[in-house]
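Box S2. Input/output pair 1.
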Amino acid sequence: MYEAGLLAQCPCSGGGQGVPPLVLFGIAALGAWVVHRTWRAWRKDGVSRMSKIWKVAIVVALAAALAVVIINKQRGPSPGTGAAQVSPPAAGLPRLLDLGSVSCIPCKMMAPILEELKKEYAGRLQVEFVDVMANPDAATPYKISLIPTQVFFDASGKERFRHEGFFSKEDILAKWKELGVSLDAPAAAPQESETSATSTGCGGTGFG
């Protein structure tokens, strides 16, 4: 019920694993065949032959529906999609948690943004993704009603903000700034120049 509720509210492409294109093509072809045969039967033999064609069509349609159900059950969730559980917060780091699905279109659009943030702000921002369809238990504590949902936590672990739907990289960074959380790299400690270090090391040797 939890997964179904999220899918009903997500602007996804079918949600879940979806129906294989070959099966969809077969169903479409069956529909076209039934319409064609019905039209020909109506013109040639009248109602009696039409009823036989519809009976055959119903049997074939039921068989196709059963095949779709079996295929979807066999496919199941893709391995390695989403973490089994949310990682513990890194000490002293703000955290961005994205709750979504690998089959949801806006969630797929979020994926490269999360990867960029993870690489560019490594050591300054903890970025995580949870596939709520593969791991509903991991998402339950956050009580989300729409995917994707991004949850912003400060360095103490307190939730500061959440957003539903696609969220651009620029908007995410702007929100952190609005919340007063700095993601800028710490200033590097000043280092002595190579000339100064060499001069100090050679002092008092008596050369010159």
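Box S3. Input/output pair 2.
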Amino acid sequence: MNSRILYEATPLLLPHDWNKTIETDKMRNKITIAEYLYFLSVKYEVSLDRLFKGIALARENEEVSCGRLLIQCRQKARDHEVFLITNGHQVVTQFYIPKYFLDHPNHVEDLKCNHLFRRVSEPHDHENPKHIGDLKCGMKRVSLRARILDVPKAVLVFTRFGEYARVSNALVADGTGTIRLCLWNEKINAVSVNSIVQIENASVTKFRGENQLRLGKNGRLSVVENAAFPSPSEVEKSLLQNTA
């Protein structure tokens, strides 16, 4: 049995409307319950296992915290149960899950084994790489140490916030590879060529076809003094070996 729900389930549905909405709505975006749980796990950065276990616990405890989410069991019927999921004061969704799905965790296991989806899990070392050579576009919470190879002259740009700012895409390396590091305003003057910097909580984005590190509002950049780090010549030698 393959029960389907709307993934855009944010509006609260009154009990007498649920079956009618699911049966008669002709919107394109209909997915399975397992796929919808996967969608929530990706969007709110909680593992699929943890989300499903949170829902199962909410059946017994009525209210369970799951990462940033709060899961509440609002109603229990003969063949389904209704859950409300919130993020702080914001309603994420309210939807029902058939009891046959809740009683058989293999539905989630089947989804995790499906090659069309990647598993969302708790952060591991490979998701928080320590070396530039391991970086991939889309990675977040990146923390690593690198040497500044080049700091181009800053360019004055007009931001979406309606103000002018200086920006420079510095080139950094650590022996496993190089990447551009986007620096704004005072951070440009905080570094110089051959400086060793500690980058915290950055993200990897794509800019003009190349990967780039961005600090964002939660990122941090600091110059490390007297750090045990390969010299500029050693970094260059490692880079040549890696590209050979």
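Caption for Box S3: Residues 4-113 form one domain. The radius of gyration is 24 Å.
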